[in-house]
Automatic annotation (TrEMBL):
Annotated Protein export membrane protein SecD/SecF C-terminal domain residues: 395-569
Origin superkingdom: Bacteria
Role played: Part of the Sec protein translocase complex. Interacts with the SecYEG preprotein conducting channel. SecDF uses the proton motive force (PMF) to complete protein translocation after the ATP-dependent function of SecA.
Annotated Low complexity bias: 136-147, 155-171, 180-216
A family per Pfam: SecD_1st
Listed name of the protein: Protein translocase subunit SecD
Places the protein is found: Cell membrane
Complexes and interactors: Forms a complex with SecF. Part of the essential Sec protein translocation apparatus which comprises SecA, SecYEG and auxiliary proteins SecDF. Other proteins may also be involved.
Cellular compartments per GO CC: plasma membrane
Length: 606
């Protein structure tokens, strides 16, 4: 006997859902780390808690507004990196960041001040030895001037005039990244091209004197410069931080060339920088490259990182990870690249040089450029994320790092899973008792929804770093349970149609037409509530809202691709039409009684 008309339609819908499941689990098992396990949150796998203490230039307490702004920026960075389940809370005058896993480096990177300045490079960088300090022997860096170079715009006397550079200087080769002639380069290794400078630009060429080269005439001794000493037990941490910052500024941001030379010799690129994020952008700066291999003398800031409109990470034409920048004021970048054509311009992040490209073309229009360096996919994304959401109003130091145990969370998880299993079994038993064999269709819909949700959770953990915590599991259980609610609404609409005298076969499509409107209205309300809760909430409540919204969307998919097709197929089967199987005998009896009563009324009226 050929199948009745329309039987193929439900089968096609079920086939579509089967294909979706196949695609989901193909991605789970054949992409990424191929692990079928979701990432767990802090309360389930433990994590690292880092306490950040602010360092203010005046040594005073940070304002509440500054702490609140720093908290919001760090939370934005977390969201930019993905739904990672991290927490950022204010604890007195400190910020406490908690991230899943045992690696606290992620928490420390989130707390990076991310103050970006673009400063012209004065002269050539000096190489750093294995001890972290400028090498005191050997030849000066290419293009380095000898002591006694006259100040800006002053002609050099006789033979003391700077000769053109030899054509090579430390730094990675810089090439335009697009048609606008974007400058890019690295402050650490390789060679730059086109570094020749005119002899008239003495201000740009005034650099550190070569350490091994003695001046031809006795020079006056440099004025005593403050240098950070041993910690004073009598000082508070805030006062100690102020003392270190003031000393570093006096030594490394002096306008005296001899003090600048002294700063270069004393600077240790292997030690933490007390000036990180606290340098004065209006003064020169002696600082290290981010890899600690070179020391730079930089002119005052020309472009502030706050002028960055957008930042993103990408692979450039050399298949290297880079950070693409778009400036709010395109004219400022065009003027800078015009003025410093064939000269180095440094990008400093928290007082360290992360890139020092040679401007190859200028002026560069369009307000776009690219930072290249020793980046990988993760570090490039972190830097772009930090620049995109802005720098912190305060600089922080890690005062404490500890491990958060997952014991309590795992105990709660076991209890929650047991409670959830008991609840689902109770729902299935109720469906079987009330709807007889049709209750199995509700159970099948629950299983289909759960299988899809699990696969998607695994993929989200792999793609956007989503972590599953206790609140998220609660959202999953509630969301999956809503699938049973959809079935109940559908089944009750079928019973309403049968009370009006329709058969089981004709009642199913009519009941579906009425039930889907009710279900869609309910799902829309739930989805709106989830979105609002996710936007307004913080911490683990966000995880609850996210999983609740996810399962709400999947519930609609399961309703249309699984529940409805199964009921359509059941309505066309003589087996499922039996009252003993579908539990609709009482409803059919009511329909017969109503029909009989109507017949009697009609007969009596005649």
């Amino acid at each position: 006997m050929p199948p009745s008309k329309g039987t193929g339609h439900p089968l096609r819908l079920l086939g579509v859902y089967a294909v979706l499941l196949a695609v989901i689990y193909a991605l789970v098992f054949f992409t990424g780390d191929k692990s079928p396990e979701p990432k767990l949150g802090i309360d389930l796998q433990g994590g690292t808690q880092v306490t950040l203490t602010p360092r203010t230039p005046d040594g005073g307490k940070p304002s509440k507004d500054s702490l609140k702004q720093a908290q919001q920026i760090i939370e934005s960075r977390v969201n930019g990196l993905g739904v990672a389940g991290s927490e950022v809370v204010i604890d007195g005058n400190n910020l406490v960041i908690t991230v899943p896993g045992s690696d606290g480096q992620q928490a420390k990177s989130l707390a990076t001040t991310a103050k970006l300045y673009i400063r012209p490079v004065v002269g050539q960088p000096l190489p750093v030895g294995p001890d972290g300090k400028v090498q005191t022997g050997g030849e000066p860096a290419p293009g380095a001037e000898q002591p006694g170079t006259p100040p800006a715009n002053t002609p050099a006397p006789g033979a003391g005039q700077q000769a053109p550079a030899s054509g090579a200087s430390p730094g990675t080769e810089s090439k335009p990244s697009n048609d606008s002639g974007t400058a890019s380069g690295t402050a650490s290794s390789g060679e730059t091209s086109g570094t020749g400078e005119s002899s008239g630009t003495t201000a740009q060429n005034r650099v550190f004197p070569a350490p091994a080269q003695a001046p031809t005439t006795p020079a006056p001794a440099p004025a005593p410069s403050p240098e950070p000493g041993a910690p004073n037990p009598a000082l508070t941490p805030q006062q100690q931080a102020k003392q270190e910052i003031d000393a570093a500024r006096a030594l490394r941001q002096s306008t005296d060339p001899q003090v600048q030379q002294l700063a270069a010799q004393r600077l240790d690129c292997h030690k933490p920088d007390p000036l990180a994020g606290n340098d004065d952008p209006k003064l020169p700066l002696v600082t290290c490259s981010s890899d600690g291999n070179e020391v730079y003398l930089l002119a005052p800031m020309r472009i502030d990182g706050q002028d960055i409109k957008d930042a993103s990470s990408s692979l450039n034409q050399q298949s290297q990870w880079a950070v693409d920048l778009t400036f709010k004021n395109a004219d400022a970048w065009a003027d800078l690249t015009k003025e410093y054509l064939q000269k180095q311009v440094a990008f400093t992040l928290d007082s360290k040089v992360i890139s020092a490209p040679v401007v190859q073309q200028g002026p560069q229009l369009g307000g776009t450029t690219q930072i290249t360096g020793q980046f990988n996919a993760s570090t490039a994304k972190e830097l772009a994320n930090s620049l995109k959401y802005g720098s912190l109003p305060l600089s922080f130091e890690v005062s404490e790092a500890s491990t958060v145990s997952a014991t309590l969370g795992l105990a709660s998880l076991h209890a929650g899973l047991i409670a959830g299993a008991i609840g689902l079994v109770a729902v299935l038993l109720y469906c079987l008792l009330y709807y007889r064999m049709l209750g199995f269709l509700a159970g099948f819909s629950l299983v289909a929804s759960g299988v899809a949700v699990y696969g998607i959770i695994v993929l989200l953990g792999r793609w956007i770093n989503f972590t599953l915590d206790l609140a998220g599991i609660a959202g999953l259980i509630i969301g999956i349970g809503m699938t049973a609610d959809s079935f109940v609404v559908f089944f009750e609409r079928i019973k309403d149609e049968m009370r009006e005298g329709r058969s089981f076969r004709s009642a199913v499509p009519r009941g579906w037409a009425r039930a889907q409107r009710t279900n869609l209205s309910g799902k829309t309300v739930s989805l709106i509530a989830s979105v609002v809760l996710y936007i307004l909430a913080a911490g683990q409540v966000k995880g609850f809202a996210f999983t609740l919204g996810l399962t709400t969307v999947l519930d609609v998919v399961v309703l249309y691709l699984v529940t409805s097709p199964l009921m359509m197929l059941a309505s066309r089967s003589p087996f499922w039409a039996k009252p003993s199987v579908n539990g609709l005998g009482a409803v059919q009896q009511i329909a017969r009684e109503r029909k009989a009563a109507g017949t009697l009324v009609g007969t009596g009226s005649r």
